[in-house]
Amino acid sequence: DFCLSRGLGDVYKRQNLVYRTSADGLSWSDPTLFKVGGSSSYVLSLAFNGTHFAYAYAPEAGTTLYYRLGQANSDGTITWSTSYEQRPGSSYTYDVAICFDTQGYPYIAYTTYDGGNYYPKVLKSSERNGIWVTASGFPFSLNTTISSSSWRVSILPLTSGKVYALYTDPSRPIFGRLWDGSSWGSEETASSSNIEAGAYHSAVNEGDHVHLVFLKDVSYDIIYVKRTYG
Fold it and tell me: Which pairing describes strands 222-227 and 3-5: parallel, antiparallel, or unpaired?
């Protein structure tokens, strides 16, 4: 039910963002514009839960975080919930990943600069209607002991309103935390090996289980690990 893209990295500068739709995978619609390009690159992430489509982005690394929600229609169009993009409140965003939980609430994981340190964090909205209202207890700092602008984050929807966040920095292990629907668990070390670079990982959930692959530093081996829930 969930399609997730953890950060498309830098989309080419000055390019508009468009989408196409298809009913059979063979014939495709003309491109439809959903974001006008600017003079800078985008840090972008997309999510779809079968009903709604959302994106989160920063115009470039170190700038404001934006969010928008739309309903996917059967004719391939998107009806946006608002005529403008929401600003969840982070002014210095360096990485973005978005997902919906099973109850339809959006979460955005990102790296931010607070004026002294770079930490990975998670935002949640208490609204599902496209108006961003930051939920109580958020933003939550996933790690406050390692400051790095190279943190990269992923966030996965599990079942019953739970989510799992993964975050890592070059030449370090991958870390994780479980949101059980009401509180965050303690930080977990998800890998015994270090990753080559933070962006060199991909993860997907299978119910409440998490499958993770990443590129090991130095040897460049592709490593697979699984988190079994409970």
Answer: unpaired
Give pLDDT tens digits for 20-68. Answer: 988 898 999 999 988 876 656 668 899 999 999 999 988 877 888 999 9
pTM of structure: 0.91
